[in-house]
Amino acid sequence: MDGRKSVAPRFYPRFVPLSIHNVVINCADPRRLVEFWTRALEMHVLEDYGSYIQLGRPGSPVTLGLQRVPERRAGTNRVHVDLNGEPRVAAAQRLVELGATVLGEQGAPGLDHVWTVLTDPEGNEFCITG
Length: 130
Fold this sequence. Notes:
Blueprint: E1 22-27, H1 30-41, E2 44-48, E3 52-56, E4 63-68, E5 81-83, H2 88-98, E6 101-107, E7 114-119, E8 125-129
């Protein structure tokens, strides 16, 4: 920034902050990824429109969409999902058994924080932290 303070215009009403409701993964074949992601996240299909499939879990405010797109992914994902919950190494092994591929481990310099980078069966990157 250039050092100036950012001040919201006075005529805008104050709204509730936005929250993440749904994360969408673009893919060539949503049906191919349903089995992987439902088993990986213990979710089930909420809606199936063929080219778009919505996954969710009771009690979770965040859902996962699998959306068919015609173009193939090129390069590194600009956005990816970070997962946590179960021990990282065991989770990575379980997801590999479901069809994921481990790309490697990374860590934050100077911090005791490591994460595993994986891809789903179509090559979409995600991480497991812990």
